[in-house]
Amino acid sequence: MAMGSRGYKNNQYCNLDIIKKIANLRLKKANLLGYSTHAELVLTDRMAENPDKVNKFLKKLVSAAKPVAIKETQDIKNLAKSEDKLSDIQYWDWSYYSEKLKKKKYDFNEEDLRPFFNLEYVKKGIFLLSEWLWGLTFKKNKKIQVYHSEVEPYEVYDADGSFLGVLYLDFFPREGKNDGAWMTNFREQEVCCGKDIRPHVSLVFNFNRPTESKPSLLTFSELTTFLHEFGHALHGLMSDVKYVSLSGTNVYRDFVELPSQIIENWAYEKEFLDTFARHYITGETIPDHIIEKIVAIRKFNSGYHTMRQAGFSFIDMAWHTIKTPIDEHPKEFEKKAKSVISLLPEPENILISPSFSHIFAGGYSAGYYGYKWAEVLDADAYKVFKENGIFDHKTANSFRENILSKGGAEHPMRLYKKFRGKEPSIKSMLIRDGLFIK
Ligand SMILES: [Zn+2]
């Protein structure tokens, strides 16, 4: 309740008037620039192009996810009833019972996989993946200057032996370092005075340090994080454009997660995992039944999670498609915006908008849909690899030629269609999430 009412209490931190003011000023700015809404202004520089397309996309998502989400909610309710005689569950009960149900259904603990993901092997596995797909090689060069002794610098070479760029890997936490994981550039690719300037790309993580008796061991989600950021690095390293402002990851925001998210898909492939994942003591590969569980868990409660993401997106779009200044109370406004996604009783003193920092404090206004949009792209694009083979050169090279190398030099939809032969379809993501019903 405390979390859900941030910025929505009757005190000096109440954000209700501030968010109304922000939305109204954004409308005013859009109008001055000749657009009827803020969303329309923002989306001119997005793959989705306009609010209508975004809303249609969200409605499609909801109509696929809703029946599944209703069933998932019922399963959680049944569990709460049988275990604790709870007659009806609330939002704050969800995580607790959903974890219980997950344990019951799959008996899986993320820690079980850690012994198989020795960071040194994972790194080699990921390097090898890019060697199989594109013929890249990574050569450690300790002469390259680094900002901290733990940073590992690699020269990256293309299949024909030409130099692609420098990759820095900064794996472990230390004092003064930010949490999380990200990709960043020290220099981006561009052609300057007829010379191809190659990029310097860095990947930063906060994995567990090795100890005297144990190597650094990753969880499965840390493995996918590594793959994700590596995808961003490939986008930077393979860039082949003229202008620095359009190079590498300088693309429309709802397109930038395609290269990163698509690479995550390999984490679910036994063929890939078997190439590097070895128990650090016994040396055995991951048992088949555990890999099957990882794939199955990906679908667990995906209806509910899709509805939740769609709900945030609807609220975001509602605030940014107003055509006249908003006068209504945000509670009423938000209620209407997300009415189609409600699965559990809505508590009176909880509201998302006043603490929705993505859209009011960050840069995601009229952009929250982008999370799901990118999933549609990565699932739809990965389907080509699934059909032609997950290590298929031709597919990999087409992905490189049409997407990874082009940065923002062409409209993303045009690039995507060149790779895929058609516009992205939502179907592959729905199948992957277990939401596709014939
Ligand atoms: Zn990312």
Descriptive account of the structure:
The chain is α+β, with helices and mostly antiparallel strands and 438 residues long. The chain has two domains: 3-107 and 300-370, Orthogonal Bundle (Neurolysin, domain 3); 114-283, Neurolysin, domain 3 (Orthogonal Bundle), CATH 1.10.1370. Helices cover 47% and strands 8% of the residues. The protein is built from 16 helices and seven strands. It has helices at 16-32, 38-43, 51-84, 94-106, 119-134, 220-237, 258-264, 270-276, 288-297, 302-320, 330-337, 357-360, 370-388, 393-404, 412-420, 427-432; strands spanning 137-140, 152-157, 163-170, 182-187, 190-192, 195-197, 200-204. It has a five-stranded mixed beta sheet, with helices on one face. α5 packs across α8 and α7 crosses α13. The longest helix is centred in the first third of the chain and has 34 residues, at 51-84. The radius of gyration is 23 Å and the shape is globular. The protein starts with 15 loop residues before the first helix and ends in a 6-residue tail after the last helix. The relative contact order is 0.16. The mean pLDDT is 95. It binds zinc ion (ZN). Zinc ion is lined by residues 228, 232, 257, 260. Zinc ion binds at residues 228, 232, 257, 260.
